[in-house]
């Protein structure tokens, strides 16, 4: 059974810690760009927020967030995320 975890969610590039609420392999995190809207991630292959192809999108600023660390964990402990703005190329 999934449990509420006291996971640490960090921005990969800066190490900034984001407020989060993680349950099993699901995470609601504050947007790493605008810090406003909670962004939902599911740490499971091909799910929302696991890659650049499958990003979680902030509804306030539109940035695309994805997990950089291992996404096959049953429970999240340390999560590194990266993000791109919709206007970024590559
Ligand atoms: Zn945002």
Q: How would you explain this protein's 3D organization?
A:
32% of the residues are buried. This protein has no helices and nine strands. It is mostly beta strands. Strands 3-2-9-8-7 form a five-stranded mixed β-sheet, with no helix packed on it. Strands 1-4-5-6 form a four-stranded antiparallel β-sheet, with no helix packed on it. The protein has strands at residues 4-5, 8-11, 17-18, 20-23, 26-30, 38-42, 56-57, 64-67, 78-84. Bound molecules: zinc ion (ZN). Zinc ion is lined by residues 31, 33-34, 36-37, 58, 60-61, 63. The site of zinc ion has 9 residues, from loops.
Layout: helices, strands, pairs:
Blueprint: E1 4-5, E2 8-11, E3 17-18, E4 20-23, E5 26-30, E6 38-42, E7 56-57, E8 64-67, E9 78-84
Parallel strand pairs: 2-9
Antiparallel strand pairs: 1-4, 2-3, 4-5, 5-6, 7-8, 8-9
Structural class: mainly beta
Could you say how many structural domains there are in total? 1
Which compounds are bound in this model? Answer: zinc ion
Number of helices: 0
What attributes characterize this protein structure?
90 residues; four-stranded antiparallel beta sheet; 0% helix; 39% strand; binds zinc ion
């Amino acid at each position: 059974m999934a449990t509420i975890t006291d996971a640490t969610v960090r921005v990969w590039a800066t190490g900034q810690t984001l407020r989060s609420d993680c349950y099993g392999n699901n995470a609601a995190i504050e947007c790493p760009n605008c810090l406003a809207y909670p962004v939902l991630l599911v740490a499971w292959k091909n799910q929302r927020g696991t890659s650049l192809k499958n990003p979680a999108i902030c509804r306030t600023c539109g940035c695309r967030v994805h997990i950089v660390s291992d996404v096959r964990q049953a429970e999240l402990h340390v999560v590194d995320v990266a993000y791109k703005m919709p206007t970024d190329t590559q």
